[in-house]
């Protein structure tokens, strides 16, 4: 707090939303109580407290807006908040706070574990704002990555169809999808009846349900619509599509009930033709990109042209699958793979940074993180000690009530007070634990991405390319042959820093020794102060 020698007046801001990233975090009341203690300990004058229960993922918070307007009018020069991510989880609000600090309109931001001043290198604040919500989003990405990996191993993600079960206690090397002893034989007999060619689906369903007792996973009678879905599912011949609608097919490791030819014969008997024939080619950019008109997945098809002189030319074209809207105009607009690759590289170029800048940025962030780790540890240890004390006191009054030493009314009153304190402390501990190092790992992932994405895209495997496109951001859309993307929040920060970093490297040239590297890092620091 040594930098706040001049008397600064402060607004306090507390926020919590009901969304998943905030549900287990410190309540607004807890934030205000702890921040008032912090302000008193450091002699910080609080003019007014602003609080609201609203997500900060997008601009539009009423109390936040009122606070910013009054700061711009010069009423106060400082802000006290629990964490930076209480102030902003979107680049618009985060950018406004950073700008007001850089211009000394805000002279000091005090969080529970860190201070921010206009003279500081703003890289830390910019990255914290950029990463504030990204690791929450990445949980979904990581889950999808795990599902894709499972599919690539030959095990279909999601619920197993009737006749199969997922192995709930799978050990390493064991099957992840098992045959359901209760239903596998019955479903096999259903396929056998259809293969005779003498029965309709309703007739097979009638026999299976009323004579053989076929039920779904929940034990309820299998519906006729589910029976139709059963006979349309290529899972039973050992194949499955994942993600659904992507055109990416996998050979399953589960026990098939029928052969591919038998499956195709049933499709013909049902009058559906061979619509589920497996596509064997694997196209690298199929999956993450969606149609900008209808939202369906983008698929790819390979074309071969043989010239009169015998020369063979292979082309790959991407277009909308039309799975969500059969009348989607993008189905007829095809983009050649080379052109799509060019557009992807163009997007990568906007966030591309030199390897030296990546290494410098991560060193700055790690040093800053280590500097406040001691303070965080002391705070967390103190909170845990208080939490343990409240748990022991709750146990003590339960024992006292059991021995008849206190009345029911006294027990209820003291228990309610102690449970409130316990809940208050649990929220503080959760908030202190959550994201201490997560944002730093997220920063490393995205700075590394910016330094290496273009090279990895040019030389990577299909899976690596799909992973790069997933990390790039959300709303990766193809419309009229043009690719657009909403960059991941960390990449928005990096995109602002990247041009200056590249320009410095171009002018400076290759660093040859320790002195060169030191000078290069000084220039990076100056650039980040101006451009973050």
Explain what you see.
The structure is a single chain. Helices cover 51% and strands 13% of the residues. By secondary structure, it is an alpha/beta fold. Among the domains are: 9-120, Rossmann fold (3-Layer(aba) Sandwich); 159-269, Hect, E3 ligase catalytic domain fold, CATH 3.90.1750; 290-346, no CATH class. The chain has a five-stranded mixed beta sheet with strand order 2-1-3-4-5, sandwiched between helices. Strands 10-14-15 form a three-stranded mixed beta sheet. The chain has a three-stranded antiparallel beta sheet with strand order 11-12-13. A hairpin with a 7-residue loop joins strand 8 (239-241) and strand 9. Helix 4 packs antiparallel against helix 5, helix 7 packs antiparallel against helix 8 (201-210) and helix 12 (355-402) packs antiparallel against helix 13. The longest helix is centred in the last third of the chain and has 48 residues, at 355-402. It is flat, with a radius of gyration of 30 Å.
């Amino acid at each position: 707090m040594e930098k706040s020698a001049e008397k600064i007046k402060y607004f306090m801001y507390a926020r919590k939303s009901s969304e998943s990233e905030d549900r287990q975090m410190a309540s607004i009341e807890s934030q205000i109580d702890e921040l008032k203690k912090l302000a008193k300990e450091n002699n910080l004058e609080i003019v007014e407290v602003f609080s609201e229960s609203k997500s900060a993922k997008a601009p539009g918070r009423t109390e936040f807006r009122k606070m910013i307007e009054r700061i711009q009018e010069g009423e106060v020069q400082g802000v006290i908040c629990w964490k930076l991510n209480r102030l902003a989880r979107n680049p618009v609000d985060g950018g406004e706070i950073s700008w007001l600090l850089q211009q000394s309109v805000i002279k000091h931001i005090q969080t529970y574990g860190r201070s921010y001043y206009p003279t500081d290198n703003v890289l830390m604040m910019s990255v914290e704002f950029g990463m504030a919500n990204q690791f929450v989003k990445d949980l979904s990405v990581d889950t999808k990555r795990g599902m894709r990996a499972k599919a690539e191993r030959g095990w279909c993600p999601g619920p197993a169809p009737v006749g199969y079960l997922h192995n709930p206690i799978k050990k390493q090397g064991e099957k992840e999808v098992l045959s359901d002893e209760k239903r596998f034989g019955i479903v096999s007999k259903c396929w056998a009846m259809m293969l005779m060619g003498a029965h309709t689906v309703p007739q097979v369903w009638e026999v299976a349900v009323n004579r053989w007792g076929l039920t779904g996973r929940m034990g309820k009678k299998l519906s006729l619509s589910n029976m139709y879905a059963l006979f349309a599912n290529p899972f039973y011949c050992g194949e499955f599509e994942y993600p659904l609608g992507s055109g990416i097919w996998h050979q399953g490791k589960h026990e098939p009930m029928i052969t591919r030819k038998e499956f195709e014969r049933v499709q013909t008997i049902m009058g559906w033709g061979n619509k589920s024939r497996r596509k064997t080619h694997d196209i690298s950019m199929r999956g993450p990109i969606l149609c900008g008109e209808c939202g369906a997945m983008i698929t790819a098809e390979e074309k071969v042209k043989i010239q009169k002189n015998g020369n063979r030319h292979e082309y790959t074209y991407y277009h909308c699958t039309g799975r969500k809207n059969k009348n989607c105009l993008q189905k007829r607009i095809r983009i050649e793979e080379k052109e799509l690759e060019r557009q992807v590289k163009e997007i990568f170029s906007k966030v591309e940074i030199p390897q030296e800048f990546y290494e410098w940025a991560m060193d700055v962030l790690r040093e800053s993180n280590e500097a406040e780790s001691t303070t965080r540890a002391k705070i967390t240890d103190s909170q845990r000690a208080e939490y343990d004390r409240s748990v022991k006191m709750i146990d003590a009054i339960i024992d006292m009530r059991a021995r008849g030493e206190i009345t029911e009314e006294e027990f209820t009153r003291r228990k309610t007070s102690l449970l409130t304190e316990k809940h208050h402390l649990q929220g503080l501990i959760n908030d202190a634990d959550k994201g201490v190092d997560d944002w730093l790992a997220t920063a490393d992932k995205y700075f590394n991405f910016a330094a290496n994405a273009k090279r990895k895209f040019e030389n990577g495997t299909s899976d690596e390319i799909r992973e790069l496109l997933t990390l790039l951001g959300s709303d990766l859309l193809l419309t009229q042959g043009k690719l657009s993307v909403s960059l991941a929040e960390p990449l928005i920060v990096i995109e602002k820093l990247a041009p200056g970093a590249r320009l410095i490297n171009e002018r400076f040239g290759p660093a040859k020794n320790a002195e060169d590297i030191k000078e290069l890092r000084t220039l990076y620091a100056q650039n980040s102060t101006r451009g973050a």
